[in-house]
UniProtKB/TrEMBL annotation:
InterPro entries: VTC_domain (IPR018966), VTC_sf (IPR042267). Pfam families: VTC. One of its GO terms (biological process) is polyphosphate biosynthetic process. This is VTC domain-containing protein. Transmembrane segments: none annotated. Gene3D superfamilies: VTC, catalytic tunnel domain. Residues 4-222 form the VTC domain. It comes from the Bacteria.
Length: 227
């Protein structure tokens, strides 16, 4: 049985163009989703339970988000939107994805306080995911994503850049907190458990493996917390 591995690597945003050039020289653009923007409403409890689980690396972790897509200029399209949950217990992980009735363009127009958004996590119960606490929208994270396929290995590679919290419902963000992250992320999915060799030159420019959470890093950036 083939083992699929997901790995994340982080580099400074200033190196994203170089990373794109190197990846493009060795890989083919994804034939279906070569370039797009990704928009996600992240849900959490009033006391940010899901965020705390991530920070503390607890045995049980939950992530709930509402995701849609758009063009390179961050304009949402009329395509479908999906409610997603990732539940991790120890080394076991389960992902649930449910298409919702609204399009991405419609969801982008709703305020984070809209009652309709607050009710959506209840849909997860239809797939056997019971949340122990009520989740509400916390903020929207948006970024540009380029997707590639390595023709030699079949590994899928994504380059995420311009990651930022475009909207938030935090009550007391840092006075000089920034919605834009200074990092870009390379993610590989496939049967390759280590960095593709053609990306090795980026290691000298700061590329490093990291279990990178866009939710956590955007929160820390907005709150001016040390990362």
């Amino acid at each position: 049985m083939e083992t699929r591995t997901e790995k994340k690597y982080v580099l400074d945003m200033a190196q994203a163009l170089l990373a794109k050039t190197i990846i493009s020289a060795h890989c083919l653009p994804d034939p279906h989703f070569a370039a797009a923007t990704v928009h996600s409403i992240y849900y959490d409890t009033l006391d940010l339970q899901f965020l705390s689980e991530k920070i503390d690396s607890t045995y049980f972790k939950a992530k709930v988000r509402l995701r849609w897509y758009g063009d390179w200029d961050f304009k949402p399209d009329n395509g479908p939107a999906f409610l997603e949950a990732k539940i991790k217990e120890g080394g076991l992980q389960r992902k649930v994805r449910i298409q919702v009735s609204r399009t991405g363009r419609e969801l982008a127009l709703l305020s984070l306080g809209d009652p309709e958004l607050a009710t959506l996590p209840a849909l997860l119960a239809t797939r056997g995911v019971g949340l122990c606490a009520s989740a509400r929208p916390v903020f929207v994270i948006s970024y540009r994503r380029m997707r590639f396929i390595d023709p030699m290995t079949g590994v899928r590679i994504a380059l995420d850049q311009d990651i930022h919290a475009s909207r938030h419902a935090l009550s007391c963000p840092g006075a000089a907190g920034s919605p834009m992250l200074s990092s870009a992320v390379i993610e590989t999915k496939g049967n390759l458990a280590s960095l593709p060799p053609y990306l090795a030159p980026l290691m000298t420019m700061g590329l490093r493996p990291e279990s990178f959470s866009k939710y956590l890093h955007c929160y820390q950036s907005l709150m001016q917390q040390h990362m």
